[in-house]
User: Which sequence fits this backbone?
């Protein structure tokens, strides 16, 4: 995995962190108070993770910490610890989309797409814990995610499609 | 106290000096209200766009090569100043070009919203892309196809009439030979002046247009690869932020930036009351803002309390232009009417809340300014930058990457100007991404409004009088589509206490809410079924058809409303789109919570260009409409927004979403109209009418069921 550091400023000099991002250990100096969102976007240039509100109320910033959906805008670097971080950029394997990514694409479950990264990671986390969620369970698990374009019915359909694919033996 | 959105110089050229008549409104030429009621007349603009005649200083190029280029490898680039915000025009326009040019969809790349590369465009709003840019690009593509046939005819020394164009190749069937387009152009420009009159493929024969082609570059949206405006990075880029005033119309009393200045690499940019920071990274620039302290003098200003009386009593520039439309005599007809109903309706200010807030990256290179930003009007933002920095058009380039939507909320270039200002001071490229609360506070709102309607009918249900006054929210779709002999329709521009501007559908939502709620009330007064009452007073066959289609799919009339479950219907026409919406609501008798269970919406906008994209737009409009209908509203007092966070400003979520069914009426015999906006307007009145059917409570204020009562308004007694 390559990171573009062209314009990034990483020698902040207020602490040392080793973060495992998308399977790679990265050593950085940074402030412990910086949010994971800011770090991913503005220092690692992993811009697939989005800022929407900064208050944990839209879930556009969702990443996986040890497989669990987490709001990166409310997560300080300090609190990440040894957790493995997966962003939207880390889901593809050898050019193959994950089951959830493919399901979103097949259902056309987006309009502007700005919420899509967070939705996909939220759904990935849900399907890891609950292989065959009911519609009510999908709605409950995804309630924290906002799609301002209003594509919720298609997103529910995409999660169901991904669940079926997994049941038919597709690998995550 | 009257805030206009942006420098309106470009718009001003389009303002009709004549008072608009309703017939013009009916032709959908009036599109927008900015600020305290600036009327934007697109009559000449749209005519100009369609005919290629000048609009103001801008003339659309007739030169084919300005719109379309075929490379030697057969790849086609299409240039348009329109922008993609999720409404899917990158796909639908490419489909139309592929259709006329006779190339596969995948051969086309749309180059959009780049002021250096694309022809001038007024902006992406008003549902204008499909009815105006669609035919424009189809015309250019058809002309290119004819040129390619001529080129091949010359090459082979045969008559062009004997050749056919298909799948990116010209074929000479008689002599069994063919050439790819790229072999014909060899990448050279296709130079030809094209005026209208090219023969376009009728919708009945479409093979690529009219089909459910998936979103162009869709894969980049599920992998995080797509770069939105806020994702742009430039070499040596710094991060900027603006220190905001403590309220609207505030003046700075004192400022302390000493703590911010001590942060590593921070530069303060001060110019009067403008205070900005630049830092090497985003974290530090945020810290610089929070470390800064200031005292502001914020003058007393209006609040939600008494807002609607304020709007009625404070006409724009103290003038009253009189009604837009009068037929017959409403007072006389009302005097003779058997049944009458007079009511007031209100609509709150709401926010667009695009999930991607305003963002810009500005870069100065050798006196030329380039700005990547999220805007619906890249050429308008270029004008703002030219004005702010005294530059010529060739010295400014605005690039609009497909953005995290806008819904009418990104017509202006504030953040572009701010980023350019800071970049100039820093001598490096600068990125600014507005925070959510900045987006809520310093952008602009959908106008609040007061609507008063008086109507009269005969005992048999024939409407004979209709009087409709709209204060501040706007004239879009203000005219009734029903056949009423005596009408008085008037829009009253007011001085808005908050900065206001465009919004998806704009006043069409408010005017439809009021009109269709009132129609429902009249049906009740007359004692007729709401659908039957509408059809009785309707002569427009397309509107009749969508009402009947929605009702049939919904099963209208099959079930009777009960106190716990209500059924409502509403509809209308605007911007060439005909909509009818049926809603089923559930009211919990214990806690008085309203839930929308099911929505069926029928839609006709002429020939359908992409049925999947269209269904997506319509379902999305219904979901977005739920917010304004039930709970979205801006609270404000004394120049401050009181709920500028998602924790306080509720947005429609998964659990708010009903079962949605969309019925498309594909009129291949009619030109395609836009579909981004009007799908929004039926939801609120259909829900209000369903609530009435269940409970007998007529809710006349949008939002209808907020968590708490609106300040200064009677509590609706229902929650959502």
Assistant:
């Amino acid at each position: 995995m390559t990171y573009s550091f062209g314009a990034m400023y990483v020698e902040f000099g207020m602490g040392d962190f080793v973060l495992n991002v998308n399977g790679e250990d990265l050593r950085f100096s940074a402030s412990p108070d910086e949010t994971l969102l800011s770090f991913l976007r503005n220092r690692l240039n992993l811009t697939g993770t989005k800022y929407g509100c900064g208050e944990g109320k839209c879930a556009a910033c969702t990443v996986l910490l040890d497989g669990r959906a987490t709001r990166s805008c409310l997560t300080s670097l300090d609190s990440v610890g040894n957790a493995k971080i997966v962003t939207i950029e880390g889901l593809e394997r050898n050019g193959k989309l994950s089951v959830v990514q493919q399901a979103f694409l097949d259902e056309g479950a987006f309009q502007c797409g700005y919420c899509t990264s967070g939705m996909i990671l939220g759904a990935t986390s849900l399907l890891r814990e609950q292989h065959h969620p009911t519609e009510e369970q999908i709605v409950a698990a995804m309630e924290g995610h906002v799609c301002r374009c209003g594509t919720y019915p298609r997103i529910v359909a995409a999660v169901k499609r991904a669940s079926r694919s997994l049941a038919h033996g597709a690998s995550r | 106290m009257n805030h206009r959105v942006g420098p309106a110089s470009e718009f001003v050229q389009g303002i009709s000096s004549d008072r608009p008549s309703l017939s013009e409104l009916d032709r959908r030429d009036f599109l927008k209200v900015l600020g305290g009621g600036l009327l934007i007349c697109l009559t000449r603009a749209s005519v100009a766009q369609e005919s290629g005649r000048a609009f103001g200083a801008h003339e659309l190029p007739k030169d084919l090569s300005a719109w379309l280029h075929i490379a030697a490898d057969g790849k086609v680039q299409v240039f348009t100043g329109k922008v993609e915000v999720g409404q899917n025009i990158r796909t639908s326009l490419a489909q139309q070009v592929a259709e006329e040019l006779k190339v596969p969809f995948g051969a086309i790349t749309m180059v959009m919203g780049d002021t250096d590369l694309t022809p001038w465009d007024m902006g992406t709003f008003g549902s204008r892309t499909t009815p105006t840019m669609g035919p424009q690009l189809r015309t250019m593509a058809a002309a290119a196809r004819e040129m390619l046939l001529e080129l091949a005819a010359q090459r082979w020394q045969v008559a062009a009439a004997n050749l056919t164009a298909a799948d990116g190749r010209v074929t000479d069937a008689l002599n069994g030979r063919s050439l790819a387009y790229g072999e014909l152009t060899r990448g050279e420009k296709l130079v030809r002046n094209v005026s209208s009159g090219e023969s376009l493929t009728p919708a009945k024969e479409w093979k690529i247009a009219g089909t459910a082609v998936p979103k162009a570059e869709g894969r980049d949206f599920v992998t995080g690869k797509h770069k939105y405006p806020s994702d742009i990075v430039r070499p040596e880029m710094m991060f900027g932020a603006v220190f905001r005033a403590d309220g609207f119309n505030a003046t700075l009393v004192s400022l302390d930036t000493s703590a911010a200045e001590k942060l590593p690499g921070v530069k303060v940019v001060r110019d009067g009351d403008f205070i900005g920071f630049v830092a090497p990274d985003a974290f530090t620039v945020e810290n610089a803002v929070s470390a800064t302290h200031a005292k502001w003098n914020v003058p007393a200003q209006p609040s939600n309390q008494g807002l609607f009386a304020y709007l009625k009593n404070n006409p724009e520039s103290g003038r009253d232009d009189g009604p837009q439309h009068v037929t017959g005599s409403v007072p006389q007809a009302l005097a003779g009417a058997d049944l009458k109903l007079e009511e007031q309706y209100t609509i709150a200010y709401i926010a667009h809340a695009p999930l991607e807030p305003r963002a810009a990256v500005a870069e100065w290179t050798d006196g030329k300014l380039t700005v990547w930003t999220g805007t619906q009007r890249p050429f308008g933002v270029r004008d703002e930058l030219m004005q702010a920095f005294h530059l010529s058009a060739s010295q400014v380039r605005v690039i609009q990457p497909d953005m995290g939507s806008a819904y009418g909320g990104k017509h202006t270039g504030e953040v572009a100007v701010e980023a350019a200002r800071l970049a100039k001071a820093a001598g490096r490229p600068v990125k600014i991404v507005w925070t959510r609360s900045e987006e809520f506070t310093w952008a602009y709102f959908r106008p609040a409004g007061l609507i008063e309607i008086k109507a009269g009918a005969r005992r048999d249900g024939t409407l004979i009088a209709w009087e409709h006054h709209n204060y501040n929210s706007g004239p879009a779709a203000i005219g009734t589509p029903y056949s009423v002999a005596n009408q008085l329709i008037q829009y009253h521009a007011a001085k808005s206490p908050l900065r206001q501007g465009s919004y998806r559908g704009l006043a069409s939502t408010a005017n439809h809410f009021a009109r269709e709620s009132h129609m429902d009330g009249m049906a009740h007064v007359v004692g007729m079924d709401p659908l039957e009452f509408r059809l009785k007073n309707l002569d427009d066959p397309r509107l009749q058809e969508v009402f009947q289609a929605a009702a049939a799919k919904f099963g209208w009339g099959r079930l009777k409303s009960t106190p716990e479950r209500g059924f409502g219907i509403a509809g209308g026409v605007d911007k060439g789109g005909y909509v009818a919406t049926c809603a089923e609501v559930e009211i919990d008798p214990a806690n008085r919570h309203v839930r929308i269970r099911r929505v069926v919406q029928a839609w006709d906008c002429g020939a359908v260009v992409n049925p999947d994209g269209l269904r997506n737009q319509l379902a999305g409009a219904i979901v977005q409409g739920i917010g304004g209908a039930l709970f979205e509203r801006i609270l404000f007092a004394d120049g401050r927004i009181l709920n500028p966070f998602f924790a306080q400003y509720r947005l429609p979520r998964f659990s708010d979403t009903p079962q949605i069914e969309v019925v498309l009426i594909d009129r291949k015999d009619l030109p395609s109209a836009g579909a981004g906006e009007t799908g929004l307007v039926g939801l609120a009145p259909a829900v209000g009418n369903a609530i009435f059917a269940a409970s007998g409570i007529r809710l006349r204020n949008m939002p209808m069921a907020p968590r708490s009562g609106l300040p200064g308004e009677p509590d609706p007694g229902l929650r959502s």
Q: What stands out?
A: Strands of chain A lie at 16-21, 24-29, 62-65, 68-71, 84-86. Residues 1-14 of chain A have pLDDT under 50 and may be disordered. Residues 99-167 of chain A form a domain with the DNA polymerase; domain 1 fold (CATH 1.10.150.120). The two ends of chain A are 20 Å apart (CA to CA).
